[in-house]
Design brief:
globular
Length: 77
């Protein structure tokens, strides 16, 4: 399981303040016998149409001296 990003808790708290419920932290996706990991699974009920929305959130920060290297690493994951 990958390590949490430096902004993990800040993003999680922002989602909660916006009315999202965190369903899984981290979220494991099983696909064809392999496990993939995302940072969060969140759910929000929209009152206007009474439907639930779910999102999978992957959190990445670009804090190293080379933003291009961070970008390449993020795309590779």
């Amino acid at each position: 399981m990958p390590a949490k990003d430096v902004y993990h808790e800040a993003v999680k708290n922002a989602l909660i303040k916006d009315g999202w419920t965190i369903i899984a932290d981290p979220y494991t996706i099983e696909y064809e016998g392999d496990n993939l990991y995302a940072d969060l699974l969140a759910e929000k009920t929209l009152l206007a149409d009474r439907q639930e929305r779910r999102i999978v959130v992957e959190i990445k920060s670009f804090i190293n001296p080379s933003p291009m290297n961070d970008f390449q690493n993020a795309l590779g994951q």
